[in-house]
Amino acid sequence: MEVIPAIDLRNGRCVRLYQGRFDQETVFSEDPVAVALGWLALGAPRLHVIDLDGADKGKPVNTATIEAIVKSVSISVQVGGGLRDIEAVEATLAMGVQRVILGTAAVENPALVKEACARFGEAVVLAVDARDGYVATHGWKEKTRFLAKDFVNLMAAQGIKRIIYTDIAHDGTLTGPNFNAIAQLMASTDLPIIASGGIASIDHLKRLARLRVEGAIIGQALYTGQIDLKEAITAVNSPTKPNRHRFNVQNMGILEHPERKRELDPERVLDLLPLEPNQKIADIGCGPGYFTIPLSRRLGRGRVYALD
Predict the structure, then answer these.
(1) What is the pLDDT of residues 108-125, one digit of tens each?
(2) Can you say whether residue 306 is alpha, beta or left, with left for phi > 0 and alpha for psi between -120 and 50 degrees?
(3) How far apart are CA 307 and CA 155, in angstroms?
(4) Which of 133, 158, 172, 278 is 20 to 30 A away from residue 20, measured at CA?
(5) C-alpha distances in angstroms, 207 versus 141, 213, 256?
(6) What is the Cα–Cα distance from 14 to 26, expressed in whole angstroms?
C-alpha cells in the first residue's frame, strides 16, 4: 500500500483545512517545494498535490508552484483542484504530472471524463469526496444527489480506472478514516481505491492496508508529527509472518454472545484468524454474514466459502 503525503496549496503556501473549510486554515510552510523535497527524502512513493484556490475558482491557480514541485522531485505527482475542462487536464499533464484528479468536473460534465479517459487512460483519476454518503463538489461546498457508490459505477462506465475516496467529515480531524464507508465502497467496485481523510496513526494505516486499499493519503498527521512517514511506509509494507501458531479458538468465544458480538469490529476480530500471507481460500465456520466481506478483502482474489 502506498503512503502518500498530501500538499494542499493556497495562495502559494502549503496549508491544511479542517473538513475542507477555507475559514479554518493552518499554514504549515511558505515553501511547498521544500516540503515536497522533504517528503521525497523520507521515502514518499508519490505526492498528492491539490490546488485549493483552483477548486474554489474553478480553474487552475497555483500552476507555477505545482510545476516547480514536479520539476524538483523524482517521484510521481498526482494533481487535482480546478481541472474543469480538457485543456486544463492536458496542460497539467504536460507539466510532467503523472495523474490528474477530476471531481467537480466529473459530476457536472461526464462527457469530459469520457474524453479524458479515452485520451489519457489511467492518468485520469476520479475524486469521490463524500459528505454523509453523498458526493460533494466545488471545493466540497456543494452536496450533490449522487451516492458515492452510484457515482463510482457511473464514472466507471465512462472509463475511470482508479478512485480517491475522501470522507469530508473526517478530513483534517485526526479522528480516523471512515472505515465502514471505505469497506462498503470497495465491496461495490473492483476499481482500486486510494483512501483519504482523518488518518492519524500507523494503526489506521494498517487497518486500511488490511482492507487492501491501493494507497492512503496523509496530510495533517504528517505535518503535526503524529505520523512519521518513513516509519509508516515500513510498517504497512513489511512482510508479516503467518499467525496460525498464535491462534486460540477460545478467543473466538465472544462470538457466542450476540450482545457482545454486535459491538465487535469484524476487521479486528479477523486478526484472530490464522490467515497466511498468500492464502487463496478460506472456510468460515461461524457468522458468515458477519465475516464474509472483510475476509474476502483479506484474501485478495481468493475465495470465501461461508457455510451456515
Answers:
(1) 999 999 999 999 999 999
(2) beta
(3) 35
(4) 158
(5) 29, 10, 25
(6) 9
C-alpha cell at 82: 480546478
Segment (H or E) for 18: strand 13-18
| Euclidean distance between CA atoms 146 and 151, whole angstroms | 6
Q: Is 127 helix (H, G, I), strand (E, B) or coil?
A: strand
The overall average pLDDT reported for the chain is: 83
- Rounded to an integer, what distance in angstroms lies between the CA atom of residue 234 and that of residue 226? 16
Q: Please measure the distance between the N-terminal and C-terminal CA atoms of the chain and give it in whole angstroms.
A: 34
Residue 129 in grid coordinates = 469526496
Element (H or E) spanning 80, and its range?
A: strand 76-80
The pair phi, psi for residue 40, each rounded to 5°, is: -60, -45
Active-site residue list: 8, 129
Neighbours of 68 (CB within 10 A): 16
- Rounded CA gap, 296 and 305, in Å? 9
Please give the DSSP secondary-structure letter assigned to residue 133. Answer: T
Closest CA to 54 of 27, 5, 89: 89
pLDDT at residue 245 in the model:
38
Query: Do the Cβ atoms of 280 and 302 come closer than 8 Å?
Result: yes
- Judge contact between 216 and 196, C-beta under 8 A: yes
pLDDT digits over 21-44, tens only?
777 778 999 999 999 999 999 999
Tell me, what's the pLDDT at 86? Answer: 96
